[in-house]
Amino acid sequence: MLVIALALGTATQATANSRDQAQRLHNRLAGVPADAATLDSMAALIDGNQAAQAAEMAMDDPAFYNVTLKLFATPWTNEEQDVFAPLNDYTATVIGAIRDDVDFRRILSDDLLYVGNGSSGAPAPSASSNAHYQALEDNHANLKSVLVARSQVSTYGTPAEAVSGVLTTRAAARAFFYAGTNRAMIRFTLINHLCRDLEQVKDTTRPSDRIRQDVSRSPGGDSRIFRNSCIGCHSGMDPLAQAFAYYDWQGDQDGNGGRMVYNTGVDADTGTRVQGKYLINSTNFPAGYITLDNHWDNYWRTGPNANLGWDSSLPGSGDSAADLGRELSHSDAFASCQAQKVFRAVCLRKPADSADSNELTQMTSHFRNDNYRMKTLFADAAVYCMGD
């Protein structure tokens, strides 16, 4: 019995050696086993107190791009948050931006688009088809090698004033500009990039002057429901959704056709550049706000949502989707959200205790100080969760 107890005691005190840690680093980051030579090199770096460099080595594996990052970004591209949705221009642009160490804030505002190069064998990228990206996936293209940076203006013919990073990719428009009232683009951008759903930013103390006509002020004949519930989301969301007043999706949502449209002329229903969808159900409350242009204001800069950490150097209002993208991506919530998402993706769990919370704070600080480089977050999370 003593021998068994000693044996069990030894087992419970066993620790992972550097090669075990290297294997875990590689598995978590690339999703595939490393070869012996790579493991040896990574283990040597860990022994030399250079675990972050070992993590960077693991991210050199093409599987980090084709598997880990593809699964990481794909749920952001559809309302169902389906991780297995086909490769598309939104996901590819996120992958390319991470590979190239682009300041990640730029993905919500800049003229960014990543496509396969000429050697990929895919058809030309098109604003009205996902065939280019589907071919990359079907052909198992090495995304680390084939993705090249291009422009939405030159590739899709999108007007320069309309471009707003991944928010104006074909995939995002198909998911969030289809039908509806374009509020979905606000909601899912908050979910995907600030880690907040509408219930978490609900604030009934904001003015209701920009809430559109389609929101009843007495739902079910009870005005208290509006004052105590509806206003909490719409008072902040509607002034922000005005940034997307000129956008729509043309065509079916299903299938391979359809494209984003950006109104540069006069809409027959509104008499302005604003899309007709902004007048949907206008008889619900005719005295409600009528959208006349794409000028947006962030009512959440004051009140409880000031704790999202808005950038005081920005005006808190603007006249384009790109201006709104900068407002959101320059917030503290954006930076901390990226750290939270990476932690869950690499550690395969949610933060659970004070040690995890402290790690997230350090990851966020390191991310910001390293020019918002996403691979820094992946390396930090992988080292933290590689085991002792």
Structure description:
With 388 residues, the chain is mainly α. Among the domains are: 16-60 and 334-384, no CATH class; 181-330, no CATH class. Helix content is 45%, strand content 5%. The chain has 16 helices and 6 strands. It has helices at residues 2-12, 18-30, 36-47, 51-58, 62-73, 89-99, 131-138, 143-146, 152-156, 170-176, 183-194, 223-241, 321-329, 332-347, 354-369, 374-384; strands at 113-116, 147-150, 247-250, 259-262, 296-297, 317-318. A two-stranded antiparallel ribbon has the order 1-2. The protein has a two-stranded antiparallel sheet with strand order 3-4. A hairpin with an 8-residue loop joins β3 (247-250) and β4 (259-262). α3 (36-47) runs antiparallel to α4 (51-58), α10 (170-176) packs across α11 and α14 (332-347) crosses α15. The longest helix is centred in the middle third of the chain and has 19 residues, at 223-241. The chain is globular. The two termini are 29 Å apart.
Q: What is the secondary structure topology, with strand pairs?
A:
Layout: H1 2-12, H2 18-30, H3 36-47, H4 51-58, H5 62-73, H6 89-99, E1 113-116, H7 131-138, H8 143-146, E2 147-150, H9 152-156, H10 170-176, H11 183-194, H12 223-241, E3 247-250, E4 259-262, E5 296-297, E6 317-318, H13 321-329, H14 332-347, H15 354-369, H16 374-384
Antiparallel strand pairs: 1-2, 3-4, 5-6
